[in-house]
Design a protein that fits this description.
binds nicotinamide-adenine-dinucleotide; 8 helices; alpha/beta; about 15% strand; about 45% helix; about 250 residues; Rossmann fold
């Protein structure tokens, strides 16, 4: 069987580390013809991911520094990638941030920042990448949600609301762009071993593991493989769907 993403070009936001890095590397392993490594602050790490991809035979990657909430910067990143690497077939809205705090103890600026990073950012990026996909009548937009959307922990009101929003956004965009040949899908991970989870575990300790029926945290690669499948033509009939990869967290 040919690699899942042979000949495809994929951009992943927040790909200097964590799940985004794992998705970018998985896309390259699955034969992608070009991978965009979106990052906001850690240029050196993003360049490192790009170099690791380029070191593989046929590997092509480009590090793209931009904040996902900045419309002009997102548009410029799309333009640059398409000029230097080629048309974008897949875009992964992976960048995200979690800030915990009870709603009444959070100030409005903290709430606004959570919604901007986790919900407005993906909408801003979708606005930048969808027109090209529609013109070419092909493309996949993959949004990254969280089990917090359906089973939030205490102190996650803004994060959970934003992640619930990205799931609704997935359904809305799937309906809007299906006729244009664009699929819009969502990946809903559970607990993954990244810096983000490290912060949650520092607060909640082993409670996190105790909530997972499989009693373990996933490696980023276990989730990244599923992302590559959703981006591929083997998932051609999947749109508007939320794929849960969580060791049973949402149902436990
Ligand atoms: P992480 O903190 O390791 O990585 C997040 C990345 O997003 C970082 O590279 C960061 O710089 C980037 N980012 C944040 N705000 C940005 C902005 N405004 N513009 C551009 N980049 C920005 O976290 P992770 O665990 O790898 O998270 C990846 C995704 O997976 C997030 O959407 C997160 O909500 C989701 N998720 C993670 C877990 C988990 O357990 N780790 C569980 C469910 C969902």
């Amino acid at each position: 069987m040919s690699p899942l993403l042979e000949g495809k070009r994929v951009v992943v936001t927040g790909a200097s580390r964590g799940l985004g890095r794992a998705i970018a590397l998985a896309c390259a392993r699955e034969g992608a013809a070009g991978v965009g490594i979106g990052y906001r602050e850690r240029a050196g790490e993003a360049e490192g991911v790009a170099r690791a991809i380029e070191a593989q035979p046929g590997g092509r990657a480009l590090a793209l520094g931009f904040d996902v909430t900045d419309a002009a910067a997102a548009a410029a990143a799309v333009e640059r990638f398409e000029a230097e690497v080629g048309p974008i077939d897949g875009w992964v809205n992976n960048a995200g941030a979690v800030a915990t705090g009870l709603l009444v103890a959070s100030d409005v600026e903290q709430l606004r920042a959570q919604l901007e990073t986790n919900l407005l950012g993906p909408m801003v990026c979708a606005r930048a990448v969808l027109p090209g996909m529609m013109r070419r009548r092909r493309g996949v937009l993959l949004n990254v949600s969280s089990v917090a959307a359906v089973r939030p922990a205490r102190g996650q009101a803004a994060y959970a609301a934003a992640k619930g929003g990205i799931e609704a956004l997935t359904r809305a965009l799937a309906v809007e762009y299906a006729k244009k040949g664009v699929r819009v899908v969502c990946l809903r991970p559970g607990a993954i071993d990244t810096e983000m989870l490290g912060a949650t575990r520092a607060l909640a300790g082993d409670e996190v593991v105790a909530r997972v029926p499989q009693r373990r945290i996933a490696a980023p690669d276990e989730v990244a493989g599923y992302a590559a499948f959703l981006l591929s033509d083997r998932a051609a009939y999947v749109t508007g769907a939320v794929a849960t990869v969580d060791g049973g967290y949402a149902v436990g």
